[in-house]
Structures are given as C-alpha cells and as structure tokens.
C-alpha cells in the first residue's frame, strides 16, 4: 500500500510538472533542425518560416543545420531529441524512403507531425554552354554509354533521377552532394553535367542565365517559368518533386504540439512568408497535423514500388 501511494504521488508530480510546462510553453528558444546545408531550398524555407514564427511563439526560433546521410543525420537527431517541443525538425521527403532503402532507421512514425509547409516539383538543369542542350540528348548519351553522364545528386539515391532512370531504363553517374547548395555550384563549375533540384533552389541562377532549365517534372508549366516545358510535354511522363514540413519527437505533449501547430500555421499564412516564397518561386502547401500525418503515410506507400525497383536493379 505504501509503495502504491508513493507511485501515485510521483505520478501526480510528473503530471503537474507536464501541465505547468505546457502552460508556459515556450519559455525559451525553440531549435529548428534543418537536415541539409545552409543556402539550399530546405534551409531557405526553414529560415524564412522561423523568422516569421517568432512573433507568434513569442520566442526566438534558432536554425540548426545538421547535414549528412541525405538528411538522415539531422532527422534522426530530431526524432531522438527531448519530447518537450523545444526541438522541431524540418522533415523532408527523404524520410519517406530512406528507411525503405535500409539507409536509415528514422521514419515518419518516429515523429508527431506539426504541419506541411511546402511542395515543389523537380527541374532539370544544365550549364548554358553544356553539350547537353535537351533532355533527349542527356538520355541518348546515357543510353550510348551507361554511367558516363554525371549527375549532381542532392541525396543518394536521388528519387528525382530514379524516376527518370526507371522511365527511360538508363543509368546516370550519381555524384553525391549535401543538398542543392552544393549541387548547383557543381553544375555551374562544370564538375558534373546536370542536376535536378526544385525551381526555388536555383531561380537566381536561372534568371541570371547561369543555368539553363530543360524540363520541369510537374503536371503543368510553372507560372514563374512559363518558357520551361514539362517533362510530359517533352515525351517523358515524369511527375516528381519534394515536400517539407515540421515535426516533433513522438510522444511530445498534446498542448505543446497544439501551440506549435497554431503558431506555425499563422506563420505559413503570414504575408511576409508568402511574399518570400513567391519571390523565391517556392511552392506553399499547408496541411494541419492530422492531414500531414496521412500525407506522409500515403507517400511512403507510393514510393515503395520505386524502392523495390531500385533494390531489384541493385541486386538486393
């Protein structure tokens, strides 16, 4: 009996402490882990959103770039952080396939979703003076000499490229980089032949004519780049891209998650954030926590067929 009373007292203390924490949250800086390097699209979305969210949270939101493993390093650290809401992670589409490929253990179910923020198609980019002035030329060269055409990969394996490889039964030489911030200069410097990133990650270089866009992997042409044909128009029915959202470790208190969800929802709708995303040609796609959870589960299932094809291709 005495032991039972002690357990009840301890439980009461824990619940009281949790309730007090939720009521006071946030009482200090909130960390936002970005699993890719500074300067890329994920980093840009995170920094703009964090800046705007501060006025709704009432506390600074500090960006922490944790790179490596195609996003696995940062997302794993985020999933394993303390369940108090003070560490939020910008999860990206890589979380839907890394564990399926056996390249990481972190998976969507390790997180509680907060909100989906962004979704963008992939775009094929080369140097303006490249010998590859069309997608057709890239594919012809890859078919003629498998693995000879060098691709700057923002993650390896790269699901943008895999969609193209599987569709055309070709193989490119994937050179891994830590995100678009490293891949884009590699193309501009002539170290690789092409890359596929999101339009917003390369819009400055495209507008400055430092990069040439050959095709975009979307259902329709982009309003900000109307001269760039879709891959489907070019004869390659490939629709692929990425998404970015926010999540906290599984088991974070409900009140804390509700505070974060409300604050970041207001930040996504804020004119300052909307203007930034529009100028950078980054797409906004908002979902609440419930819909974002279902969205990730659906994407995991949707990518399974590609993952199995890749494993078969690799003899696994």
Automatic annotation (TrEMBL):
Alphabetized SUPFAM superfamilies for the sequence: Periplasmic binding protein-like II
Superkingdom in the source lineage: Bacteria
InterPro entries: BUG (IPR005064), Bug_dom1 (IPR042100)
Keyword Manganese: no
Keyword presence, Signal: yes
Pfam families tied to this protein: TctC
UniProt cross-references to CDD domains, sorted A to Z: PBP2_Bug_TTT
Name listed for the protein in its UniProt record: Uncharacterized protein
Species in which this protein is naturally found: Dethiosulfovibrio peptidovorans DSM 11002
């Amino acid at each position: 009996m005495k032991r039972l009373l002690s357990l009840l007292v301890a439980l009461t203390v824990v619940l009281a402490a949790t309730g007090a924490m939720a009521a006071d949250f946030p009482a200090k800086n909130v960390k936002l882990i970005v699993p890719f390097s500074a300067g890329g699209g994920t980093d840009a979305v995170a920094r703009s959103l964090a800046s705007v969210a501060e006025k709704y949270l009432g506390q600074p939101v500090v960006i922490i770039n944790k790179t490596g493993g195609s996003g696995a390093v940062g997302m794993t650290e985020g999933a394993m952080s303390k369940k108090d809401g003070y560490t939020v992670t910008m999860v990206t589409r890589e979380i839907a396939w890394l564990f399926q490929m056996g390249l990481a253990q972190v998976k969507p179910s390790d997180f509680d979703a907060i909100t989906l923020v962004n979704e963008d198609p992939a775009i094929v980019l080369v140097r303006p003076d490249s010998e590859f002035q069309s997608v057709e030329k890239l594919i012809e060269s890859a078919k003629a000499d498998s693995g000879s055409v060098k691709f700057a990969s923002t993650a390896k394996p790269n699901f943008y490229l895999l969609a193209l490889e599987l569709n055309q039964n070709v193989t490119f030489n994937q050179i891994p980089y830590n995100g678009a911030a490293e891949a884009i200069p590699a193309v501009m410097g002539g170290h690789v032949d092409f890359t596929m990133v999101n339009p917003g990650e390369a819009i400055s270089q495209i507008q400055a004519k430092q990069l040439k866009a050959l095709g975009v992997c979307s259902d329709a042409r982009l309003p900000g780049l109307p001269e760039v044909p879709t891959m489907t128009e070019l004869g390659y029915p490939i629709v692929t891209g990425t998404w970015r959202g926010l999540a906290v470790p599984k088991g974070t208190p409900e009140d804390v998650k509700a505070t974060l969800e409300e604050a970041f929802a207001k930040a996504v709708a804020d004119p300052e954030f909307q203007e930034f995303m529009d100028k950078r040609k980054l797409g906004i796609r908002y979902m609440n926590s419930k819909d974002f959870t279902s969205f990730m589960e659906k994407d995991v299932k949707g990518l399974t067929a590609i993952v199995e094809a890749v494993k078969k291709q690799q003899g696994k």
